Amino acid sequence: MNPTIRSDTPTARAIIVAAGRGVRMQSDNRKQYMTLGGLPVVSRTLQAFDRCEAIREIYLVIPRADFRFCRDTILPVARSTTPVHLVSGGTERKDSVYNGLLAADCKDEMVVIHDGVRPLIVPDQIEMCIAVAATSGAGILAIPVKDTLKRVHTGFVIDATVQRESLWAAQTPQAFQYELILEAHQAGGNHADGITDDAQLVERLGRPVKIIPGSYMNLKITTPEDLALAEAILSAGLIGEVDSRIQGFEGSRG
User: Fold this and answer.
1) Is 58 left (phi over 0), alpha (psi -120 to 50) or beta?
2) Is residue 56 domain-resident?
3) Residue 245: is its pLDDT beyond 50?
4) Orientation of helix 41-50 relative to helix 123-136, angle to 10°
5) d(CA 57, CA 71)
């Protein structure tokens, strides 16, 4: 069952990572700046975090060359009443997150890390992550894998079918006690190649990471098809709906 959102959920600072080039989008325009429902993708993401009462400040990590563009175009349409600070991105995602952590510098507080190209996140889901991480140290959104998975070797030949019963697809936001995630990044250092999310760094420390059942609507916009699907979700008014099978998930699959 989904954790109950508590009235005493602690406040947190948000790091929104939007420094990627978006190669798979097949466009000269960065995916985080593409239009979704009349607004830039990352502006929609900022709005979701602005609506979350638990968020004190937002650190938007973008390419330094985009600072003026974001000040002139992205931030005005987001209309965030929560303070937004621009942070220079790094070579890889882990570097961008680490830059955001250093900028936040919030010892003894909570931090929430989110992909800037997941604009359909809703405040309740953000707050659930914070509530879980406040007691366990780390909590991330994830969804049960629905498809049959195949492990494939060279030549596109199936090597094995992977059992999906215990598999979940990680999403963001991912929330952590600040000192824990900072330690995880510093311990990873140059050995963090191949790391695709922040929870994996915490796992390497041997610390538990709790799963919070999320939503299949919480898309990461990576390809043109993702953008079209996000538009359809918005048009259908489905944003924020959590699949009832996830809410009542007890380990069985249909």
Assistant:
1) beta
2) yes
3) no
4) 60
5) 16
Residue 148: inside a domain: no
Number of domains in the chain: 1
Which CATH number is 219's domain given?
A: 3.90.550.10
Number of Cβ atoms within 10 Å of the Cβ of 71: 12
Rounded to whole angstroms, the Cα distance separating 207 from 250 reads 24
Do 114 and 17 contact (CB within 8 A), yes or no? yes
Whether residue 149 is contained in a domain is answered as no
Boundaries of domain holding 91? 12-142+170-247
Per-residue pLDDT reduced to its tens digit, 13-55: 999 999 976 555 545 678 999 999 999 999 999 999 999 999 9
- And the tokens for 5? 């959102």
CA 37 – CA 39 distance, rounded (Å)? 6
Which residue blocks in 1-122 are alpha helix, DSSP H?
41-50, 67-69, 75-78, 93-104
Residue 183 resides in a domain: yes
